[in-house]
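Summary for the steering committee. The consortium agreed at its last meeting that each partner would contribute one worked example illustrating the joint modelling workflow. Our contribution is presented below. We chose a case with several input lines so that the handling of multiple components could be demonstrated. No manual editing was applied between input and output; the record is shown as generated.
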Amino acid sequence: MPTYLARRIGQSLLTVFLTLTTVFLLVRLAPGDPASAYAAPSATSADLARIREQFGLDEPLFVQYGYFVRDLFTGDLGTSYSFHSPALDVVLDRMPYTITLAVSAIAVTTLVAVPLGVWMARRADTRRELGANVLTIAGQSMPDFWTGVMLLTVFAVLVPVLPASGFTSWSGLVLPTVTVAVLQLALISRLVRREMSTALASSYVTVARSRGVSESALTWRYALANSSVPLVTALGTRFAALLNGVVVVEVVFGWPGVGSLVVRALETRDYPLIQATVLVTATLAILVQLLVDLAYPLLDPRVRLGKAA
Amino acid sequence: MTPTPHLFPPPGPPSRRTVLRWGALGGTGVALGPLSACAGPTGAPGPGTLTLGLNRSLVSLDNKLNQFDAAVTVQRAVRQALTWIGPDLQPQLVLADRFEMTAPTAWSVRLREGVRYSDGSPVTVEDVDTALRMYGEVNGSFLLGLFPEMPTVEATGERTFLLRTERPVPVLDRLMANIHITPAKANRPEELQSGLGSGPYRVVSANGGAGEYTLARNTEYWGKQPPVDKVRVRFVPEESSRVIALRSGELDVVDTLTPDSAEQLAGLPGVAVQETPGVRICQLFYNFRKPKGHPLADARVRHALTYAIDGESLIRDVLIDSAEAAEGVVPLALQGAVRTGTYAYDPRRAKALLKSLDAEDLRITIMWESGEFAGDTSVMEAVIDMLKDVGVRASLRQFEPGGDILKWRQGRGGDWDVIGNGFPGTTGQALTSLQGMYGGTAEKERTRDTYMGYVIPRIERQLSDAATETDAAERDKKLAALQHAVWDTWPSLWAFAPKTLLARRDRVQGLALQPVNSYDLTAVRLEG
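What follows is the complete predicted structure of the assembly.
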């Protein structure tokens, strides 16, 4: 296990570094000019030259990269052009909001989608299952922007029981959470349904049933337990994606997370902020994947980490 | 002997099942925690709290770099300047009780007695001197472009000083409205993160990253206490969300509305929409870098093309009456602006003129940055059709925001013929807008620092003459003549000035929206 962990951490660090390098190059190759985006419309060429010098953008690309790598190892990701504060601090200020929304959305998704998937598997090929399928797919098919605005119109204007935007109280979490969760429900519930259907049709379930094991135990302790590996993998992947920010939902609900931050950073060509955001979100996403991998032996005793199958 | 069963299992590593159970329990707790808070408040502001929803993130309460209209409303509530531009776009005294031109290059200023910051310390002459230097040292400042030169401070007493310039700057009293004063010791040539000022409000909490601030009455305020106890500033980027938040009562004021949203909100119970003529001019500006012999280098061709544009339809049908067609080279709401003419729609005349000028097969490229003005794409598509009707084939080129506009404006991005571009009127003065657009010289053009290559020496001379004229009446006369002269050069295919739109809840009273898209927070009161 320690060898496995060390190897995975090493791989993760390399992945983050390569991701950052790619982002460093791509943002500089993309159209746009940070100095022009930063300066006043009336800025002169001399003003722009001064700004480029201030940001170190007048140096050759490889020199900029050298400084970037050097500063990266000291934890300095530069000062955000638009926030005039250390870029990493700006991202870390926003991260709790993103994590809160991601955790909340994934928890609600799990609490609704897993029982729903099980229910659908138990009623496979019935009208009820078809109805549930249609509902979840409809939820997934609706653009998140539209879902968000509809929820806002109903619960913030017509029946004003929830806040329309921001995170000024815990109730402000409800509508963004529901909007994000609606999108995940179809995916997770259908996955659970498929895995459960396969498991419930397995011979070990038939044997257990013949031994008098109750249907409830068969469903929850036998079939679901054996479906948990793909389920946790899917939830982990979705959770990691949510940690990168749910841009549209954040914009609609005025949610101060990293998704809306990165949009702003891209619009203003705020290189340090883009790089800091990528560093934080990539690290978290890789960490989540690592935790998912570590959870496998807990879910399935046959899995041995670090050993060939 | 039968072993005694253990009442509690012996300690040891938790089993797989235990870990799973605790994990499930924790997950459920995490999920139910937030949901259990559903019964909490809806986010509606309290009776003494005014909540403003901005469409751009206010990253700081300092305006050295962060100069956009609605931000100034909030920034000025915390930090004050020597003067401010009042509702009639005339300068009014704030921290100064005297601001007079005593010589063409000198202004005598006296600080108001008893003015102090929210920490009780007095506002001093040194603070003014430091502020001017700090603003002058900031790279990329919006304000530096407005000042022909930064004045220097010469103290003449404890509260008195002279502001000196090398050349006459007759609108210095207006320009100084943008220089916010903060204690000298805390001032730096960068955007300040702390919010210490002498204004009617002090900062209670600030989250620049999220663009959220809470201001409370400054009990040390030297003037009359403002009617509203607390002001909350929130950043809500998406317009539809801001509209919904206003309708739900969560926000009290949303500014910089698009025509669509204003139309949605107009007539709704509990909501009022306010509008005022704007000071930003949006133009389909010609490229003045065309070589001699190119049709667009000829003012007569530029003029002929203007007849192809049905401005009235564009304003009515595309911009939903949210703008006014330009009747001058700068918006008429600006102080010193004059009416110079109108854009007439006469496609037959356009065709005939183009034919007589041997420019009937003209092909032009129109470009613009996405979101440069409300309804930009629709306007451009309509313009293409209108030009087609007079035989001009036009193609559109749209680019995304992110710093490319300057490249195109400087002609470094490639060739184009017409660009859709807005020019702000931050100071409320026609003079500064005219200087920004039509003050190009051959020297500036060498570094491409003119506005779309507009270099007409006689215009620049007239402008310089007007800019240094110290007699106000004479200056206005010269400015009027200059604007007529610029109009005759036909710099734009068409132009309009978007109205400034704001929506507020009915309980918000006393809000006097200015053409510069700002208002005085101290005049706002809450009723009901």
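Chain B touches chain A through 73 residues (CB under 8 Å). The longest helix of chain B spans residues 16-36.
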